[in-house]
Amino acid sequence: MSDKLSFEFLTRLNEKYKIFSQLINEEEFLKAEGRYHFHFSAKDNLCTIDFQSRAGSRILDGYTPPFDATAVRRLRISGGLLIGKTNMDEFGFGTFCTNSAYGVPRNPFDPDRSCGGSSGGAAATVALLDGHIALAVSTGGSISCPASFCGVIGITPTYGRVSRYGLIDYSNSLDKIGLICRSATDLRTYLPLISGPDSLDPTSCSQPILDLSSSRIKRIGIPKEAMEGISGEVEAAFRKAIEITEEQLSIKVEEVSMSSLRFALPAYYVLATSEASTNLARYCGMRFGIVKDDVNAHFNTFFSEVRSKFFGKEAKRRILLGTYCRRIGFRDRYYLKALSVRQIVKEEYLRIFQDFDLVVMPTMPFIAPRFSDIQKMKPLDMYKADFLTVPPNLVGMPHISLPCGYYHGIPIGFQLVAPHWEERRLLHFAECWESVFEYQFPEVKL
Amino acid sequence: MKIGLEIHLQLPTTSKLFCSCSTSATEPNEAICPTCLGFPGSRPRLNRKALEMGLMIAKRLECRIPDVIWFSRKTYFYPDLPKNFQITQYESPIGVDGKFLFDGKTIRILRVHLEEDPGKIKRVGRVGEELSLIDYNRSGVPLVEIVTAPDLSTPKEARDFTSSLITELRYLIGISDKDEQTVRVDANISVAEERVEVKNILGLRNLERALEFEFVRQSKMLRAGKKIPRETRRYDEERKVTLPAREKEFEEDYGYILEPDLGVFNVGEIAELMAIPETPLMRVERLSREYGIGLSEAKKIVFTSYALADLFEDLYSKYPTSKALSWILDQLAANWSTLEKKMTEDMRNSILTTIGSILSGSISENEGRKMLVSIIKGEEFVGASQELNNQEVTKIICSILNDHPEIISDYKTNKRAANFVIGQVMKVFKGRYSSDEVAKLVINEIERRLSR
């Protein structure tokens, strides 16, 4: 598969779809030709020793880290060739990949539409390149969302399954590295490569071994609250997919109530922005990324100038939101309360998993929107679009988005959630699903 | 006057709190890595040794140690702070509600927590053209912060308290002896109602001075009928005054959140299984309790030397009398520093035997005192009991002269021939008698034999 790849093709693909924020250079590509087992990409917020790692932000322009992220390193030593860093919303802040300082990636099914975010470049690359494996990152749905918009598979493993060493943090208690690919076979091959404890990330060290042996899926629950506010075309495709699941896979699908679902979104935005506002404090033009020559100013003035100039609008919005939630007097009402909401949502999931093997819902409430429609959306409308991808992310449970239908050729996805460390249930379902549903990939014309 | 202290001390680990960089680099920016420079994608990993030292301190200070602890992010912007947040402990310190007994007084310890140190800023160049250089070697070095209740009542007491605390910790975890100069203290002092905080005082001497200055300043204001505003001040070492802190950061809201990269640590069990070595003040308390002596006497002994305290315990367990105590304090404690340098096992034994003989009445106090002075000075004994020993010594002299009859004839032409005998006698009695006394006896005996 990899022998088909040519540097010229990659370059032209990138010119048309803006999927990479940095592509491998020709010399390196030619040197590696025929000497790798597979090609992969890494989202731009994963540190790489030989590519800039800018997380879609101007403030990190020029920054090439002194180390590889563990996930990147593990794929490299397994014979992978890193062909580029995929485009993303700045620091992961976005649902449509329209907040990148390095161009807006186009949806492979319709270039006028978004490929979703924040791992938009990753999902689009997989839709465009057969055999490609994309390392992606999800904080609140940044793998599921673009996977569904681009008609590919996106798996977000359990929090702590994949070492976050070398991941440029958005929200450390929520960030998870996962994979975007085209088939369950790829998942089975590549997920074990990036999983496992890593002493460089203490939160990865208490995981049980990744067991991908077969498991039986008998009952799946649909939270009825998840179906509120779903567009007609998504609902129709989703219902059809459920019908196939019941009839052809002989799995019982039943409606369940999950009353805490609606609290997940606000709790998520409070926690994610609180943590993000501290993570982004380090970007001040002093030690990495943008470093200004003229440092003849009081540090406060200097920091403010750099941050005002080089952070994007959405980054600034989230810093303000997060800082607000952490302030004395608001901390209890927002930050601490959000922590308890997270616990409640988790308990509700666990209760459902006593009776069900998986929980299913549409991945996104609508199909990939046109850029012209996105421009009309207010920030709050954009945040609301994450209401189905956020809940499993908030509680760190593994989930997968699979293509489940097409509306006038535009892909629609559904998302399955499993209990902590039960990635094998997702994989098993994905394998079953592939046997009864055929994925479509766009024709690439350059 | 009420004084409360926040004391920051460096833990003597070989590596930093959250990375494996050395804590003892000499060249600027020599011991740095992505973690202590806050590079994006790097992560903290807790140094277990630092955690154990912190727990040991909390335990020594009789704190309540929670089962589970975690760390927090304290966010503020400053060039020496690589992440622009400091990893510290906020709602979950390693110890709370402890106490420290000191000079018979109980100082309540509100909390003990661990945190990372920022880097160090060095300003170079002429005034007006100053350049700030940053050394990140210190960034990530483990600190322990100990917060007391406002239980101290004078600047002197605050200093003495801090000094004893440092001594304790030196014995407990091997804290550096430079800490008396490098300890960083924030002090709260209220002469009247309102409290004033003096931030960032460096070293014990400055602590006492800063507090004295504040005491005088606040007292003057009160006498003038003024109200003391609640404020944060800093100590100017050069001018020896406290000044209102101009830095805005002191009033900032730090927006604490949990540090998600470190997770939680189950410390309850570790702390429970941990054995605390006996520190000086613990020993003071024990000596006072076990042997029924006063705290101040016990303190004098222990703080003179652990070896003296050992000696005391050996002696006092046999002769538990106030006399034994005064022998230790008056004769030994006073000269201990010179004594300790030349102390041998033999010397220690002879000191013990001598005081034992005095206490049991086998030698007189006067004699005993002289003997001790001699031992301490490393001299021969003087004033030995003449009558008894004359016979003993003479017996030896006679046997030497019998063995070496040539000495008598030699002596006739050369008086120095007696020296051989004197030397032999001194050797036999291992310097127990003064050579003058021995010489007198030797010459007497030779003369006696010559005159026969």
Structural class of chain B comes to alpha+beta
Integer-rounded radius of gyration of chain A: 21 Å
Task: State the helix count of chain A.
Answer: 15
Total tally of structural domains of chain A = 2
Q: What is the average of the pLDDT values of chain A? A: 96
Helicity level of chain B: 40-55%
Strand content of chain A: 15-25%
In the CATH hierarchy, the third-tier topology of the largest domain in chain A is known as: Amidase signature (AS) enzymes
* Overall CATH class of the largest domain in chain A: Alpha Beta
Pair of chains with the largest interface and how many residues each contributes: A-B, 44 and 29 residues
Largest sheet of chain A: 11 strands, mixed
Report on this model:
The complex is a heterodimer of chains A (446) and B (452). Chain A has two domains: 2-257 and 344-436, Amidase signature (AS) domain (Amidase signature (AS) enzymes, Alpha-Beta Complex), CATH 3.90.1300.10; 261-341, no CATH class. Chain A is globular. The longest helix of chain A is centred in the last third of the chain and has 23 residues, at 331-353. In chain A, the strands form two sheets. Chain A has an eleven-stranded mixed β-sheet with strand order 1-3-2-6-8-7-12-13-11-9-10, sandwiched between helices. A two-stranded antiparallel sheet of chain A has the order 4-5. Helix content of chain A is 38%, strand content 16%. Chain A has helices at 7-17, 26-32, 70-77, 120-128, 144-150, 184-194, 232-248, 261-279, 299-310, 313-326, 331-353, 371-376, 379-384, 390-394, 423-436; strands at residues 20-23, 38-43, 80-86, 106-107, 110-114, 133-138, 153-156, 176-181, 219-223, 252-256, 358-362, 399-407, 410-417. With 446 residues, chain A is an alpha/beta fold. The mean pLDDT of chain A is 96. With 452 residues, chain B is of the alpha+beta class. Chain B folds into three domains: 2-273, no CATH class; 280-377, no CATH class; 386-450, Orthogonal Bundle (Arc Repressor Mutant, subunit A), CATH 1.10.10.410. Chain B has 16 helices and 15 strands. An eight-stranded mixed β-sheet of chain B has the order 5-6-9-1-10-11-12-13. Chain B has a three-stranded antiparallel β-sheet with strand order 4-3-14, with no helix packed on it. The radius of gyration of chain B is 32 Å and the shape is elongated. Chains A and B meet through helix 8, helix 9 and helix 11 of A and strand 14 of B.
